[in-house]
From TrEMBL:
InterPro entries: COMT-like, COMT_C, COMT_dimerisation, SAM-dependent_MTases_sf, WH-like_DNA-bd_sf, WH_DNA-bd_sf
GO molecular function: O-methyltransferase activity; protein dimerization activity
Protein name: O-methyltransferase
Entries under PROSITE patterns matching the protein: SAM_OMT_II
The species this protein was found in: Protea cynaroides
Gene3D superfamilies, per database record: Vaccinia Virus protein VP39 (3.40.50.150), Winged helix-like DNA-binding domain superfamily/Winged helix DNA-binding domain (1.10.10.10)
Sorted UniProt keywords: Methyltransferase, S-adenosyl-L-methionine, Transferase
SUPFAM superfamilies noted in UniProt: S-adenosyl-L-methionine-dependent methyltransferases, Winged helix' DNA-binding domain
GO terms, biological process: methylation
Record domain O-methyltransferase dimerisation: where: 20-101
Signal peptide: none
O-methyltransferase C-terminal domain span: 139-240
Pfam families: Dimerisation, Methyltransf_2
Amino acid sequence: MDLIKKESLEELLQPQAHVWNHIFYFINSMSLRCAIQLSILGIVHNHHQSITLSELATKLAFPKTKTACLFCLMCLLVHSGFFAIRKEGYVLTPSSRLLFKDNTMSMLPFLQSMLDPILVTPWHSMSALFQGNGLKAFELNKNFNEAMVSATRLGMSVVVTESKGVFEGLRSLVDVGGGIGIVANTIAETFPTMKCAVFDLPHVVTTLKVNENLIYIAIDMFESIPHADALLLKVIIVDMVVDGHKVKHKFTETQERTEKEWEMLFLESGFTHYKITPILGLRSLIEVYR
């Protein structure tokens, strides 16, 4: 093989680094999952001050032979922004504080669910989707509802704060496929005069408690949806199959849409106008009116 010219080498290094970055990107997620499993965040929190590597290893009851491995793990987590260095020790960051279960905005259940091997494994067969073989159905464990709650709570806090006007004046609202009702409950608490209802399958809502302005109705949303001033849909997952105590979810054909494609869909469905408001990261609030 001919020697690569200096100019060509410099041009090659950046794309090579880009490829390497994608090859090993999973290490970030797995390192964070490891820290959760080892209770490292809790140990640092309970130390009440910056904790050194040796102190952390002692708290974890690791042998000295594992100190180098722990150092590498902590370097990754510092680089990822989940810990910071202060006074030669590790401290928590705002990101890591979102991973405590007692935090009302906790994202811990969502992290645990999304990084569970049950959900990660199907991605290894992603090419099968394009080859006509489909993806294997995978089981969603009991943490799924908790994961959806943690993923929803922060977003809804932003919605009812920054987009409060969307809900003002509404007398009734139905959350279609609303799960255990975290969205509707947030709205009901913020607007106590509004009558809210959550529609979902019986195994989801049958045991949930109602309150003065929030009720749960067990029904298939494809069969019937009652009249209300507003219907709310958030991350609807379809093709659910109840099998004993387990719920299976199979990927169905979905697509990402541009705003122009959304507009066409709304107008062709009989709506007259719409409004899209970015609220948090990649998520947006879409209002559609007749």
